Amino acid sequence: MHAPTDPTVHTHEATGSAIVTRFAPSPTGFLHIGGARTALFNWLFARKAGGKYLLRIEDTDRERSTQPAVDAILAGLAWLGLEADGPPTFQFTRAARHQEAATSLVASGGAYHCYLSKEEESALKEEARAKGLAFRSPWRDPDYGTPPTGASYVTRLRAPSDNTIIEVMDKVQGRVVTAGREIDDFILLRSDHTPTYMLAVVVDDHDMGVTHIIRGDDHLTNAARQSVLIKAFGWPVPVYAHIPLIHGDDGKKLSKRHGALGVDEYRRMGYLPEAMRAYLLRLGWSKGDLDIVSTDEALALFDLEGLGRSPARLDFVKMGSVNAHFIRLADDTRLMELLREQASQSGIDLSAIPDVILKAALPYLKPRAQTLPDLLDQLQFILAKRPITLDEKASKALSSEAIERIRRLRGELSLLIVWQHDEIKGSLDRFAGEENIGIGKIGPAVRAALTGGLAAPDLAVTMQLLGKQETLGRLDDII
């Protein structure tokens, strides 16, 4: 005989409901990269469908939930551009609604009050485990007995029979089957009438109108239990998509030693939010041969079918290359503002570089930068104080012969009226011709005199960015 399956129930997908997704972090720490990816997938799916993306702060663990963690989550989502459609829902404030829902389920027969002592419960659970069955309290039977006067009780779900088959059709994992004997009569309200996680999540998802639940596959085992509870309420079952967790480059579960940092740390490390969105997207989602997908492209292309079943691996090399791509695309005015913020955060004084110079430098510097600190490093040749400190290689380039040439070049440069790249390059080329040498004979020495060995762009560009007065002054110091 085949085991009976659950009665047919409507899903949000079947009823064609307007799409609503949610991201539901616990405020017990920072917004980590896995949570940020989950938020991104939910945000993209809702945005593409013209639906709603909601935020729920699951703060029922009062001992570990903190306001700084809430603030960090909200700040991280705001930086990533993943703000929700409306203010966040705080789960703890909804305890009365959770209690009301559990009470209604008792009235309809889907739940019951259990008066077992802890010792009785432990003994029955051991007995059930020994038989390979789920825990069932004798109090689920309405005729079991008269409740003890004044005794405390918990409220439990009346789980389906052992031979029931619970099916979850997951958009990533496929058909996931759970036997009824694996679903225990789990607690909905504790003895102090506070709601459990399982009850709160189901009630909140229903009340928020959530149609699609996209979350990590560490919640996959919860899906069967939650769907049983949802059906007990007679509510539509959300569409599930359980995505594999992110692993480190060694294939092991992501941890702090792999770089499982908070989103705020990536911001401090000089990554751009649009780059983080593009990188997180590729950690578990793909579309054909596309490599780097912008947010605008993702809003047109994202679908649940593109979610992979294998864990993605965090790769800082690839993250850097994706960030470099978006730094090259970034508007220079915005990049200048971000650079000044990064410098302030790093204790670097950029006040000596006017906006006009900083903005002019970016087109030359950003093609070689992966992060904002890389750009700051490339600006050091401008920030260097006179007299310039020479590294070993720069010192070797400044022979007595080279310094004499610099003396003569200094005179040529001082005659320039227009101090721009093309004019400076023309002067350098003319000088090399007059000296009957290639520019390669004078260039390294001039660069050494101007930068001391620090990274810098093309020589004429370097001079333009330093300005005529500073360029001649640095040459004078060497002469």
TrEMBL record:
Residue sites binding ATP per the record: K256
Keyword Protein biosynthesis set for record: yes
Taxonomic lineage of the native organism: Bacteria, Pseudomonadati, Pseudomonadota, Alphaproteobacteria, Caulobacterales
Subunit architecture: Monomer.
EC number annotated for this UniProt entry: 6.1.1.17
Annotated HAMAP family: Glu_tRNA_synth_type1
Alphabetical list of InterPro entries matching this protein: aa-tRNA-synth_I_cd-bd, aa-tRNA-synth_I_codon-bd_sub2, aa-tRNA-synth_I_CS, aa_tRNA-synth_I_cd-bd_sf, Glu-tRNA-ligase_bac/mito, Glu/Gln-tRNA-synth, Glu/Gln-tRNA-synth_Ib_cat-dom, GluQ/Sye
Glutamyl/glutaminyl-tRNA synthetase class Ib catalytic domain segment(s): 19-313
Motif ('HIGH' region): 25-35
Keywords attached to this entry: Aminoacyl-tRNA synthetase, ATP-binding, Cytoplasm, Ligase, Nucleotide-binding, Protein biosynthesis
Organism of derivation: Candidatus Phycosocius spiralis
GO molecular function: ligase activity
Signal peptide: none
One Pfam match: Anticodon_2
Domain Aminoacyl-tRNA synthetase class I anticodon-binding per the UniProt entry, residue ranges: 336-479
CDD domains per the UniProt record, alphabetical: GluRS_core (cd00808)
Gene: gltX2
Function in brief: Catalyzes the attachment of glutamate to tRNA(Glu) in a two-step reaction: glutamate is first activated by ATP to form Glu-AMP and then transferred to the acceptor end of tRNA(Glu).
UniProt motif ('KMSKS' region) ranges: 253-257
Family: Belongs to the class-I aminoacyl-tRNA synthetase family. Glutamate--tRNA ligase type 1 subfamily.
Name the UniProt record assigns to this protein: Glutamate--tRNA ligase
Reactions listed under catalytic activity: tRNA(Glu) + L-glutamate + ATP = L-glutamyl-tRNA(Glu) + AMP + diphosphate
Compartments where found: Cytoplasm
Main location: cytoplasm
